[in-house]
């Protein structure tokens, strides 16, 4: 692709802004347009549950500025795409042409409310976080549906404010991600922190209109002043209807972040990595992948080699006052291969070895530099043939 051809990025997200910056860094001097759906512009989402719920001052430290990019920003959601005509139409009626398109529209929070049922709270956007923070100020009790990273972070923010909080899920907290051993330790720590856990035998449903509680499959009903759904995400692909780019998993990409349509690339939470016959299709909606895929998509648009794999297995969370940093494949299965320190004491370095010579490393309550964790996770010797 020549440097003067136009690039359109749909999604003023971490993946989208990373792609824009990398395009310019790689020498693209042609027209660059970014379509965003939120009036706030681009901002970082991980601090929403880790900082914004706790401190209003954090609102002002989230921005992903477009300064120096010489890019046109259109803040009106994309509503349709014509990949043959190479145009995207926005909600305010603008039709934007492109030579190359990067899809980076991210995902929306998965909602559990019945049609017409009001008052469901989720946490995906800055507005969501501000509303939830305001509601927490007056709440005497809370229920969180979902015991993954986000659910446990929201529950931790409630407990830190002294709000009695109950987390509901079909599996123990973080068990699907971190395995039974770490899950048990984290569950015990969360209980000491003021977080109660209820394990449901199936899907819970929201009750009340507006929502005031949840009904469990066994007939138990829990009520609270605050009910927050943290049940995963849904890729933002409605605007791609009829293009053949998206399915229920999102937009499929290869290792170059190319889609099934020539001239269209994708990055971030809207994507899944297509299987290759040996590995299945894989969704990995984490901020580290958004950054990696943004860079890869930018290079691919310009016909340059990929800077590396389109995934970066780095994760971090804060639960019940404890920081966890993880480098390597998830989920974790079985016991750790090595343990330095003490999980019980809240400071440990744990390693799970894999057959290919790589490892997954968890810094449990340790403020270990990410670079050091990556070095520990790297292959110590060539994998066996």
UniProtKB/TrEMBL annotation:
Keyword tRNA processing attributed: no
Q: Which cofactor does it need?
A: FAD
Pfam families the UniProt entry points to: Pyr_redox_2 (PF07992)
**Does Transcription appear among the keywords?**
no
Q: Which UniProt keywords apply?
A: FAD, Flavoprotein, Oxidoreductase
InterPro entries assigned to the protein according to its UniProt record, in alphabetical order:
FAD-oxidoreductase/Apoptosis, FAD/NAD-bd_sf, FAD/NAD-binding_dom
Q: Please name the SUPFAM superfamilies in this protein's record.
A: FAD/NAD(P)-binding domain
Q: What Gene3D superfamilies is this protein classified in?
A: FAD/NAD(P)-binding domain
Domain (FAD/NAD(P)-binding): give its ranges. Answer: 6-294
Q: Report the protein name in the record.
A: FAD-dependent oxidoreductase
Lineage summary? Bacteria, Bacillati, Actinomycetota, Actinomycetes, Kitasatosporales
């Amino acid at each position: 692709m020549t440097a003067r051809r136009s690039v359109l990025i749909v999604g003023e997200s971490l993946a989208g802004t990373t792609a824009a910056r990398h395009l310019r860094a790689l020498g693209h001097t042609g027209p660059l347009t970014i379509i965003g759906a939120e009036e706030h512009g681009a901002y970082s989402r991980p601090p929403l549950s880790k900082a914004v719920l706790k401190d209003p001052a954090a609102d002002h430290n989230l921005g992903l500025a477009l300064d120096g990019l010489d890019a046109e920003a259109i803040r009106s959601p994309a509503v349709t795409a014509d990949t043959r005509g190479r145009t995207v139409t926005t909600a305010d009626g603008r039709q934007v042409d492109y030579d190359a398109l990067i899809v980076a529209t991210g995902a929306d929070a998965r909602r559990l409310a019945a049609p017409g049922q009001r008052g469901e709270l989720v946490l995906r956007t800055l507005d969501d976080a501000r509303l939830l923070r305001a509601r927490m100020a007056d709440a005497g009790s809370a229920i969180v549906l979902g015991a993954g990273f986000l659910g446990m972070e929201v529950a931790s923010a409630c407990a830190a404010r002294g709000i009695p909080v109950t987390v509901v899920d079909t599996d123990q907290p973080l068990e699907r991600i971190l395995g039974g051993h770490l899950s048990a330790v984290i569950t015990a720590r969360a209980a000491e922190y003021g977080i109660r856990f209820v394990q449901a035998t199936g899907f819970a449903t929201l009750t009340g209109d507006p929502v005031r509680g949840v009904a469990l499959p066994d007939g138990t009903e829990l009520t609270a002043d605050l009910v927050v759904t943290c049940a995963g995400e849904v890729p933002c692909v409605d605007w791609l209807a009829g293009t053949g780019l998206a399915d229920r998993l999102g937009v499929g990409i290869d290792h170059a972040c190319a889609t099934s349509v020539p001239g269209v690339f994708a990055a971030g939470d809207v994507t899944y990595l297509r299987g290759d016959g040996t590995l299945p299709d894989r969704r990995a909606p984490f901020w580290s992948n958004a950054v990696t895929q943004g860079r890869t998509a930018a290079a691919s648009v310009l016909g340059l080699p990929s800077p590396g794999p389109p995934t970066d297995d780095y994760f971090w969370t804060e639960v019940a006052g404890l920081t966890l940093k993880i480098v390597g494949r998830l989920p974790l299965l079985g016991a750790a291969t090595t343990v330095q320190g003490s999980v019980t004491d809240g400071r440990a370095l744990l390693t799970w070895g894999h057959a290919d010579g790589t490892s997954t490393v968890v810094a449990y309550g340790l403020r270990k530099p990410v670079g050091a964790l990556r070095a520990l996770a790297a292959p110590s010797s060539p994998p066996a043939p």
